Amino acid sequence: MPISAKGEYAARALLHLALASDAQTPVRTGDIAERQNIPKKYLEQILLVFKKEGLVRSKPGLNGGYFLAKRPSEITMAEVIRAVDGPLAPVRCVSQTAYAPCPIAHVEATCALRTVWQEARDAMVGVLERITLEELAARARAMADTCVSTYHI
Question: pTM for this structure?
Answer without folding.
Answer: 0.85
